[in-house]
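Supplementary Methods, section 5.1.

A reviewer requested that the exact input to the structure prediction be made available. We therefore reproduce it here, unchanged from the version used in the analyses.
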Amino acid sequence: MTLINATGSDDPADNPVGYTEQLRLAALRRYGILDTPQESQFDHLVELAVRVFDSPMAQISFVDEDRQWFKANHGLPFSEAPRSESFCSVAIVQDDVMVIPDTTQHEHFRSYPTVLGEPYIRFYAGAPLVTPEGQKLGTFCILGTEPREFSDQEQALLASFADMTMAELKLRQALHDLSHLAMNDTLTGLPNRVQFRQQLTEACRRADITGEKVVVGLLDLDRFKPINETFGHAEGDGLLAAVARRLQEATATSDVVARMGGDEFVLLLTDIRSVADIAVVTQRLKDTFTQPFLVSNQEVFVHWSLGFSVYPDDALELDALLSHADAAMDRVKRAGGGHAAFQRQEDEQTDLPVERLTALHRALERHELQLYFQPVVHAATQAVVAHEALLRWIRPAGIVSPLDFILLAETSGLIVPIGRWVLRQAVDAVKTRRVKRVSVNVSALEIRQPDFVEHLRWVLAESRVEPRRLLLELTESSLLEPRFAAVLHDVHTLGVRTALDDFGTGYNSLVVLASLPVQVVKIDRSFTAPIGKDTPAGKRALEVVRGIVTLANAFDLPSVAEGIETPEQAQLLRTVGCAYFQGYLFGRPEPLSLSADPSNHLPDRSLRVRGTAGG
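The structure derived from this sequence is encoded token-by-token as follows.
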């Protein structure tokens, strides 16, 4: 404790400055807290302190280079003050809580404007906000208009408020870092496909208002594989980063350049009034790539193939826009490179989709659809705790990949009757005790149906299956629709649990976790696949998953890591705290026999989720 009274002097001019102060300011900048909007977690701490200490004023104060700024403020009529008139700027050079029993009796503070005038501060107590490295960013402080003694117990309690503030600040930074990792490509620093989809959604919404067009361009580097094989992956990565910089140089600041993965990039061009405006961009791209790149001290010329699609001319759905751009890119790549816009007659191969759509209409009545079940295991014991129901289409000519028919089912609307068939079959597997718990994937189109909740209630009532044995898996993108919140709350009221599937591949996971009744987080296999490899990408992937698990734990959500294929992956994911695993290491998807003994599939162990006890 530091007690400053009438006989003591602690002039800020006597405090050390220079290099130490620069380190402190750098630490403050790293937290990115200055001049941010109000946040409830900090406001709640200040309001609680006002009640606990029976004080008219309390603040969370950060001391900047020439000012103090309040992140949370109760009782003061201003949000910042000059550092030269700040009690907190003195408190941060103390080792413990700084107490000023009576400001009017202190030779330095008695001349402060806030002491001589409104709000007539007579008492101050401030506990430093200290980083793990020992840098003092500011204080948690209380003030009063009457002189006051402050006991050792009260000082310890105020220090606890400062500790809680730092815990919230560190969690805030961790969420920000995780969001950045989840939304940006680690190699190039460009937005990744997750952030790109979010930005594309916003651009299309603006275009609906302004009447302008939005252009999506998929760009693939030609003959990049030989460059990788000749110079090595490290040099190849360096070339990709250099390509990213040139793409940014060639596009306007209002445009977006993102990396989809590998040697594929995507452009989002806004402020486009006609397709002719695209020619200006393509010419800049050509000019930018006329100069060679330097790879291992050798000049390398990079060529690309680029396909465009236009919103709303070519499509209204995001996936269709990307698919059309991809089709145009494939056409121009086959022609030897360059660029081309989507042409419906040339790029749509209608025969296969029409035939496949007709066959999909008949698939249910021909009994060609079948459910396969993949186990989910407890990370610590590897005991099976649930199964995920996965749809397979088995035609006479062979199995059709879900990648080839699920999107077709969604765009045609067939996903609704197919999804209801899947739900009944999955629940029947529980009813007949072939599995004990089951999870089912649900599309956004299914949730949009007015009778979605009623149909779910009917299936459960007819089967007499306990609702807690069913888990609905939803993607981040479908959860973003505002009207879905009420539907999911109704689902939760039924006792059915919901899972956030493929975490990190949608739009805004943090908002989803905070606002919707999601009870399980499933980590997408794209995050887990590199884990276990002794590469920078493998190490980055493990840290990303560690951050996701930390975030899930903060919301009291168990996490399921998908795509586990090796014991090493399982061990590493166990160390970062993943609660459950799913992947080929523990079982491939397979059909269930009608006579299956549930004890062979599921031991008596619970998949425990927030607010629900398993059984």
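The chain has a mean pLDDT of 85. These observations are discussed further in the main text.
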